[in-house]
Structures are given as structure tokens and as C-alpha cells.
Design goal:
The complex is a heterodimer of chains A (159) and B (320).
Chain A lengths: L1 H16 L3 E8 L3 H7 L10 E9 L3 E9 L5 H10 L4 E6 L2 E6 L6 E3 L2 E2 L15 E7 L2 E5 L5 E3 L4 E2 L1
Antiparallel strand pairs in A: 1-3, 1-4, 2-3, 4-5, 6-8, 7-11, 8-9, 9-10
Chain B lengths: L9 H11 L12 H14 L11 E6 L5 H12 L3 E5 L13 H8 L5 E6 L4 H7 L5 E6 L5 H15 L6 E5 L6 H10 L5 E5 L8 H9 L3 E5 L11 E4 L10 H7 L7 H4 L7 E3 L20 H19 L4
Parallel strand pairs in B: 1-2, 1-3, 3-4, 5-6, 5-8, 6-7, 8-9
The chains are: A alpha+beta (159), B alpha/beta (320).
Chain lengths: 159, 320
């Protein structure tokens, strides 16, 4: 219990220490680095980012956490997180206040989020945004709006 | 739907026709079953009628990939209705060979015509073309994806011969993996109460996502993997060419290129006439000795292509 309390306090300190930016919490354990990569935060060019990996979580067992300073996450990025770890919680911080806290939801249409695995798909040859229609959410199944190939969640490759 | 029943009432006819004005024909998935049947009904009306209703209209035939039947039949359909055709039959003579994007080519071409027909090797190219212009775009084949006008002419041919789709047993033979014609036709026949048999070498079986979709929809479908043994209990044999150009590895093509051949002897197992269809061109799949077989429907398909394309061009150009 004491450890739990300490972790909760630590988490509070991390969030409140952020003046402006985004906190991505409750990422399923092991997905943090992938989220970091698909958001392009692993290149060190985006400003300060803090990441916590394999933190104890009562809800998830293990969770990852990412704190991005001075940048609010875009809808496109939210959609990517929804595909990687739908149970995550996102908090937008402005002037140390949480102005919005929400869970990512997989929208009906995913634009510029998923790469089409079909090498003959026009989206892999012309300068256009990829576009996938969500056929089913659980288990995840998508259809490329261009080449019409359907893919399952396991085969999803994020842009 | 019984083709003998009279065409839709005038109000419904006008209403249905209005849905097609300026519309893109890129995929059979975009058609409701009502719309599909409407195109077939209207094609029956248009068969043999060549009023110059498209006089003054120009069609751009953009064939980035080679084609004989589809290109010429669009040309013929337009010419028979009094319209004119511009375009090219080879990507090497277009600006694409200079590196122009597909969207730019379409934006340029839209200034010269009233409708665009496109064939392209990349899947989804027709959809992209449709997004690049306000003009109606008709897909004449995009890689291994869709070929809606072929599907409509196949459906038209089947209904002309068999009267209805319900209860038909259709076998698909040959390259079920890469054949866009097969994919589109299967998707459309699955809407009716048909039974589908997919006969192919294992390497060329129907893609898993299409099979999954059929199973989920409760369609009666089964697979067989020896194309030399014809299924007995069918009304139609829809045969396809093993398409050399779709194989990434030529060795794989050599293994399956002569997987089957239909001739009179092979068809002797059927007690009564079976309909033999093929989108053409054929190579070795159908022996010429079948050409005068009473069930041979492949040249009729090619002929019906003009009728169906006349209908579609009239619909999207709003002259019905």
C-alpha cells in the first residue's frame, strides 16, 4: 500500500510539474517506446519528453507513461495511440491545469495513420494520405479505401 | 429479380437515374443491390438502341495499362451514342513517363472532356483519379482490385442466359488470387442466393480477406484445389487466364500456367449444357473446339460489354 501511495504521489508530481503539454498515461506495459516512435518523439528534436516504463499499475499490472512538454497532441496522433493502446488516458495541460482528459477512440476513418501493406496500392506510389475505413473495432479490422484490401489489427503498420 | 418483369416504374426510373449523374464508378462495393439491378434493367432497354444521346460529349480513355476489349468497347459505346473519344493506350506516351503524378494528369485531362475512363496497374488508382476531379470517373481495372464494368457485363450475361441469379451454382476456375474480375463478380453474386465453388491451384486460391468476408456473410462457398477435376454440380464455369503479369516470381507462374484446360471432352461430364464464361483474353484455358459449344458465352460477354458501357456512360453523363 505504501508503495502504491508513493507511486500515485510521484505520478501527481510528474503531471503537475508540466506547465504546458500532454501526458499520455495508462499505456499498456511495453507499448510506450512504440508510441514514442510513431509520434516521432524518439528523435530528440521535439523538445523535452519524459517517459516512464513498466510502472506498477493496479489497473493494468504494468503501464508506461509519456510526458510531452510544450506540445499538445494532434488528432492524428490520438488515432495512432488508439490503435496501439486504446486504454491509455490523455491529458492536455495548459498553465499547469488539466484542460482536457480523455481516452483515445478509434474513429470510423483513419487518415495518414496506417500504412497499406499492399505494395501495389496507389497510396504507396503517389503523394497522398493513406485512408482506412474501420470495419470492426474488436477485433480490429480495417479496409484500405484505395486498394480495398482488408487487414486485421495484428497486421497494422503505423505511419 | 426476374428479367421478364417490366422495368422499374417511370418515377423510380428517374429517381434511380438521378443517383448516377456525375457519379464515379470505381468499385462494385459502391453499388447497392437496387442500383446494380437498375443498371442491368436499363442495359436491356439500351441493347441494340444507338440513339445519338451523347452527341457533343467527350470521353477521355486513359489506359495506363494495355487493354484491347475494355478500351475498344468503351470507345465503341461512346461512338455508338454519338460521342467522341480522346486518350491514350499506353502510359509511355503520356506525361506519366516524365514523372507526372496521377492527380496532375487527371486535373489536366478534366479540362478536355466530360467523363474519364481509367485503367492503371496500381490498385486504388481509379479512386484517386475520382478524388482529383469533379468529372465522373469510371474504373476500367485497377491492378488486381476492381473492374466494375466487367462485373456488370458478366452479371448482365448471366441474367440474359439464366434469367435470374437466385439459386445459381457458379464455379470459378483458375487464378482466383490475382483476378480482379473474379473478386468483383464473387462479391456481387454473393448478394444473391447463389452457391460459389472456387477451384484453383493452392497458390492461386481466393485471398483470405475475401473468403473471410464471404463466410461472415453466410454465403455458401467452398474451395477445391485441383483444377483438372471439374465440379459436377454447377450451372456456370467462370474461367480465368493465369495472369503472368501479376506474378512477382516468374517461377511461380511456370508452375501453374497450364493448371487446366477446358475442351469438349472435359465438358462431357455434364449431362446438360453448362455456361462457360471467360473475361478474355484466353491463352490455353479454353480450347477453340468449345467456341461453337452452345454454352460458350465468352464472346457474348465481350459483346454485352458495349451495351453495359453505353448504359453507364449515359447514366453518369445524365443523358438517359
Amino acid at each position: 500500500m505504501a508503495t502504491d501511495k508513493l507511486q500515485r504521489e510521484e505520478k501527481t508530481i510528474k503531471v503537475s510539474a508540466l506547465t504546458d503539454g500532454t501526458v499520455i498515461d495508462h499505456l499498456a506495459g511495453g507499448t510506450g517506446l512504440r508510441v514514442l516512435r510513431v509520434l516521432g518523439l524518439d528523435k530528440g528534436t521535439m523538445g523535452p519528453v519524459a517517459i516512464g516504463l513498466a510502472l506498477d499499475s493496479r489497473k493494468l499490472g504494468k503501464k508506461d507513461l509519456i510526458k510531452i512538454e510544450k506540445r499538445e497532441i494532434t488528432q492524428e496522433e490520438v488515432n495512432k495511440i488508439a490503435l496501439i493502446s486504446p486504454e491509455a488516458t490523455l491529458s492536455i495541460i495548459r498553465g499547469t491545469h488539466v484542460v482536457r482528459k480523455f481516452r483515445p477512440e478509434i474513429p470510423d476513418l483513419l487518415e495518414s495513420v496506417v500504412r497499406c501493406l499492399n505494395p501495389s496500392c496507389v497510396s504507396n506510389h503517389e503523394r497522398i494520405k493513406s485512408r482506412f475505413r474501420v470495419l470492426k473495432r474488436d477485433p480490429l479490422r480495417l479496409r484500405c479505401e484505395y486498394c480495398e484490401r482488408a487487414i486485421s489489427g495484428d497486421d497494422v503498420e503505423l505511419l | 429479380m426476374n428479367p421478364r418483369q417490366s422495368p422499374a416504374s417511370p418515377a423510380t426510373r428517374a429517381e434511380m437515374a438521378a443517383r448516377f449523374v456525375g457519379r464515379d464508378i470505381t468499385s462494385m462495393r459502391d453499388f447497392t443491390t437496387d442500383e446494380l439491378l437498375f443498371v442491368l434493367d436499363l442495359s436491356e432497354e439500351f441493347e441494340g438502341s444507338d440513339e445519338p444521346r451523347l452527341k457533343g460529349k467527350i470521353l477521355a480513355n486513359l489506359f495506363f495499362e494495355p487493354s484491347t476489349r475494355t478500351r475498344l468497347s468503351f470507345h465503341s459505346a461512346m461512338a455508338r451514342l454519338g460521342g467522341q473519344v480522346i486518350g491514350f493506350a499506353d502510359a509511355n506516351v503520356s506525361s506519366v513517363s516524365k514523372g507526372e503524378s496521377l492527380s496532375d494528369t487527371i486535373r489536366m485531362v478534366e479540362n478536355y472532356c466530360d467523363a474519364i475512363v481509367i485503367r492503371h496497374k496500381f490498385e486504388g488508382a481509379a479512386r484517386l483519379a475520382a478524388e482529383s476531379t469533379h468529372l465522373p470517373v469510371i474504373n476500367a481495372g485497377d491492378g488486381a482490385n476492381q473492374h466494375p464494368t466487367q462485373t456488370l457485363l458478366d452479371l448482365y450475361t448471366i441474367r440474359r442466359i439464366h434469367g435470374a441469379f437466385e439459386g445459381l451454382r457458379v464455379a470459378f476456375l483458375g487464378d482466383l488470387r490475382y483476378s480482379r474480375t473474379v473478386h468483383s463478380l464473387i462479391e456481387s453474386l454473393a448478394r444473391f442466393n447463389t452457391e460459389l465453388v472456387c477451384v484453383s491451384p493452392p497458390q492461386l486460391r481466393l485471398p483470405g480477406d475475401i473468403l473471410d468476408d464471404l463466410f461472415e456473410r453466410g454465403v455458401r462457398v467452398r474451395e477445391e484445389f485441383n483444377p483438372t477435376i471439374l465440379p459436377q454440380d454447377v450451372d456456370i464455369l467462370y474461367t480465368t487466364r493465369i495472369q503472368k503479369e501479376r506474378f512477382p516470381d516468374p517461377v511461380d507462374y511456370e508452375k501453374v500456367k497450364n493448371a487446366y484446360q477446358l475442351d469438349r471432352k472435359a465438358l462431357s461430364i455434364y449431362p446438360s449444357r453448362v455456361t462457360v464464361m471467360h473475361p478474355l483474353p484466353r491463352v490455353n484455358e479454353i480450347s477453340p473446339d468449345l467456341d461453337d459449344y452452345e454454352g460458350a458465352a465468352y464472346f457474348q460477354q465481350a459483346k454485352n460489354g458495349v451495351t453495359v458501357r453505353k448504359t453507364l456512360l449515359s447514366l453518369v453523363l445524365g443523358v438517359v
